[in-house]
Every structure is written in C-alpha cells, then in structure tokens.
Amino acid sequence: MAYTRINLLKQCFTLHPVGQGFFYSGVVTAEGKTGNSNPFKFVFDCGSMTKGAGYEEADTFRRNYLEASGRLDMLVVSHFDGDHVNQIGTLLQRKVKVDHLILPFTLFEERLFLVLKHFLRKGVAPADEEREDSFFIQFVLDPLGTLRENLDGDSTVYLVTGDPRPASEGSDGDGKGFPGRKGRDTERTDAPRMDFGFGSLGRKATAKDRVFFGTKAMTVSEQLRIVKDSEKGYIHLINEGVNVMEFLFYRRRITKRERVFYKDIFQRFCAHFGIKNGSSPEAVQKEILEKLRSLRGGTTLRKKIYWAAITVFAADLEILAKDAENLNTTALSMLHLNPTYYESLAATLLPHGQADGLYYQRRTGLIQKFDGTNKTRIEHNLFPYHSFHGDYEPYYDRDFFPNCLLTSDSFLLHQTEVDAFFHRYQAYWQRFWLFQIPHHGSKKNANRNLFTRVNRSARKFINYGIHHWALSHYSHPDPEIFDELRIAGCCSDIIAVNEYLGFHFSFTLSAYQH
Fold first, then answer.
1. 269 CB-side CA count, 13 A
2. How many CB atoms sit inside 10 A of residue 187's CB?
3. What pTM value is reported for the model?
4. Which of 2, 78, 414, 480 is most buried, with most CB under 10 Å away?
5. Basic and acidic residues bias located where (predicted)?
6. Would you say the C-alpha torsion 301, 305, 311, 317 has a positive or negative sign?
7. How far is CA 156 from CA 73, 184, 253, in A?
8. 476, 466 in Cβ contact below 8 A?
9. By CB neighbour count within 10 A (0-12 exposed, 13-18 middle, 19+ buried), where does 39 fall?
10. What tens digit of pLDDT does each residue of 211-226 get?
C-alpha cells in the first residue's frame, strides 16, 4: 500500500552573524486542509556595533523574506541598547509594515538614560554619530513615532509590563484557544494564514500610559495595548483554528528607587539645557532630540548629568552594585516553544483526518563568513541530522527541540533575580534545548547562580563581537564566565556566535497517510 508524506509544520530559526549585537529570526510555515500557509516571519532584536555586519544581515533578511509581501509578522524589541536595535531601520526600509510590535513598557526617562549611556560608552558625541546612531537616538526616544511609516491599520503594538505571577501551562491540550482580532485576522480565506496574539488582548493604553511611555496617540486607539509578561502568546493557524507555536516573555520589574534615578537624570538634562518640563511630552521629546544632536564632546554628558546623578544615588541605589554603565533593567527574555500535542495537531491539519504515522526531522547548521561578509559565506550541518518516526521520541527531539530561551541583556546575577526568572519559566524549565548566555557573556549579568539552574543537556550560545572584544573595554565574553560555567558543570556544547559565525536550526513535522 502506497503512503503519502505531507509536511505539516516547518520552522527555521537563525542566530545571525552580526558580531557585537543580536539578531534572531524565525520563519514558520504550516500546511492545512486548504493548502500551504504564507510564512510567518518574526524577528527578535536587530542591531550590531560591528561595522557592516548588522547591516548586511538585516538587508539580506529583508530582501529574502520581506520584500515580496512588504510585511513582517512580528518584531520583538528586547530593550533599547544600540547593539540590539540600530539595524531595525535597515530591516524595515522601503516601508515594510509590522503586524505585531512587542516592546518593554519603559519610561521615557529611562530611555533617555540609555541614549546617554550609549554615547558615553562609544566615546563620541551625538553630533558626531554615524547613520546607525542617528536612527538609534530617534528610535529609543520615540520608538512608535520613528516606526510610524511601518505601522498601519492592521498593526498592533504591545507594551509588556512585569507580572510577579508565574505563567500557567496555557494551551497544552488541543491548542485551540486564541482570542483573535477583529478585521482581516478572523476572515476565513481559501489559503491558510497564521497570526499572532496573546492569551488575552490585554488592555487599551490610557492617556496616562502614553505620557509615561512618551508617545502620541496612534491612529487607531485599539492599536496600542498593555499586556503582562505572564500572558502567553501564540502563533495561530486561523483557518484550522489551532496554535502551532507558543511564546512566553519575562521582564524584571524596576524598583521605585530606580525610577527616581531615571527621573533625576531627566531633570538634570532638562535643567542644564533649559528645557521646560511643563511642555507637552511631544515638545519635550523634540527639544531633547535637538539638544542631543547638537552636542559635541562628551564632557557635559559625563560630568554634569550622568555621573552627577550616579554620585547622588551611590549610597542606596542597588543597581550600582551591578555597574551603572552596564545597567539595563528593561530587557525582555523570550521563550518560544512548540506544543506537545503533535498528534492532535496533525489530525487537525490533515485533509483526511488521522495520520498513519508521524515523522520528525531536525537540522542544525553553522553559518561561516570567513572574512565577515557574505562574499565568503557558506552554510553546512553542524550536528548530526536527525530524522525519526513517532514511536521514537528521545527527550531532546520530542520535548526540547527546537524550543529556545533568549535572555538578551537581562540581569540574572544575584539569587533573587535568578529565582524570579525561574519563577516565570518553571512550568517549562525542562522544555528548551537552546539557551542564551545573557549579555554577550558579561560577568556582570550572570554566574553560577543561573548556570546551576539551567538544564545541563541544553546547549548554550554566546553572541559577541570579535573585533569589538579586541578594541574596546567591553571584553565580551568575559573569561570568568567560562569558570562559572565549568563550576556549574555546563561548559560543554557552547556555541559561539559572532561576525564570522552564525547558527541555524530547523524542525519539520510530517505525516504519512495511505
């Protein structure tokens, strides 16, 4: 009896070789009863301080995946450091539209602090910025205004806030719970289509929310929503009514004292340059942007504003124990994972019901750029290629792969921070195969407190810049990180990602029917 093989779900993920920065992408396709879906494309951060590397990768991804449709399904910004966001302009050039934009809910004062920190690190003044820096300043101070041409009536912006409660197991079961959105998202068409949504739609942003975030009202009031990081997100196959992928975020909540610190930075900046706080948020934003771009030399920023505020708060501001110049309290972590209900998923997607057998494939590969450019780029398999039937389900294939936990630049150094992080993901702690060492391997962001909690069988990766390491004071990754990994017993299977090396992995679920 002849059998027909049908590819039901294919997922491809890439750790792009951008050097000192981060750019992660995913492309998901599914086949339902009505045919193949259009690819669902998502990006987590897009930036680099390594000259040329970030631009080349962002431009290549845009040409390969975004030009034809003119849309990116989901863009997640973990935080507002330049090496994570300064290539978003390249990614979205030619007015590529974003359906779902996910940002941490940060105060305008905190984002101003991040801009000042960026230029103090680089040792240049804003007036001497490069093209990426110009975009960075504008985007950090006014992210929604900067991306105005990339948002339309079909776009939704989510501002993610911290929630101390752990996430629930969510949709494990038949995977058919999805709130949906009005309009084109719930229209049934002949071709299957995927969309993203949270377990609840969250709440509409209020006028007060907009003032805190520092943004004007968007064209459609429903577009800007506040969601808690305990809410799980889903990629949903609309026509078939089933979830094919899940997302869970985490953001550490900042303390009241930290808020006071950011406000002090803001007030010192406004007082020094004669900016009136009583003006509208838009007017203050515009004036701050103009002042930043007119500055030459970093003495004013460093002495009269930045270090003056740090000195005042040195006695009791807990973040200084971590080094204020490495401070980033807003970084979102993101876990993406596959559902465990493969049999139910297959039955839903197959044209004629139940499968006679399921077939799983996984591939992992290395991206090499021998001179750091696409001119010398090659890709090949790194780990053995695995292909197996449904009755063979080793833990790393069935329950782990291709689930990935991205930590970005999160602070996970002290036990209280690690406990809160674990609290968020405890229901899924044994279900990821790939884990990001935080903040490019900085010793100020992680140590054995974190590494002893991570599953030893999970592979880890460190993203960093080689030339950046050699020429700057960042020194990522820090040698002490490897001592901490050895002590924790998890220093094997660490993947290096830099301007010369990238990494990609894919998962395919197929079914056989006669």
1. 26
2. 10
3. 0.91
4. 78
5. 182-191
6. negative
7. 10, 13, 23
8. no
9. middle
10. 777 766 444 445 899 9
